[in-house]
Amino acid sequence: MTTFTIHTKDSAPEDSKPLLKKSEDEMGMIPNLHGIMAESPATLEAYQTLHRLAQETAFSKAELTVVWLSVSVEHGCGYCVPAHTAIAKKMDVDDEIITALREEKKLPDEKLETLRQTTRSILLNRSNISDSERENFYKAGFTHQHLLEIVCVMCQKIMSNYINNLAKTPLDDPFKDFKWSKND
């Protein structure tokens, strides 16, 4: 079986080298995911752009974590769940929220639970959610903007989840303490 190359700034295609430098400058490292994506400069650039845009949404840090982890858990991404656990901890998201998301349990906050349920429904039903699901989402305090931004963040996670699952991306050292698998 052919394995994917985890590129460095030296081995990457020329157009990916500045993108990997950007990752290193922003994160203090080049995550293995980015090293794999570097094989396709367009893919790495798209992912970096979507990641930046996800952080510019109207979601709070806890809400963004709910979307990131809900999608990643549903896709069984053994790379993104640990990575976003580490990111959530750096963003000071409550451990109870992180644990519930990783274990697919009800969240302790009703608004966040509504966001989790809506995100999962959009994902599982290919955006064909019911009118009652929409109404519950809006009653919880979310807006049309939030509904659209779930899709934006979901696009980022679909890219990384699918690529990680295809490439069997090994965990980076900073994420190893948060190892996770769908069957745990």
TrEMBL record:
Residue stretches making up the Carboxymuconolactone decarboxylase-like domain: 41-101
Listed Basic and acidic residues bias regions: 7-20
Annotated region (Disordered), positions in chain: 1-20
A Pfam family reported for this protein in Swiss-Prot or TrEMBL: CMD
InterPro entries, sorted: AhpD-like, CMD-like
Superkingdom of the source species: Bacteria
Protein name: Carboxymuconolactone decarboxylase family protein
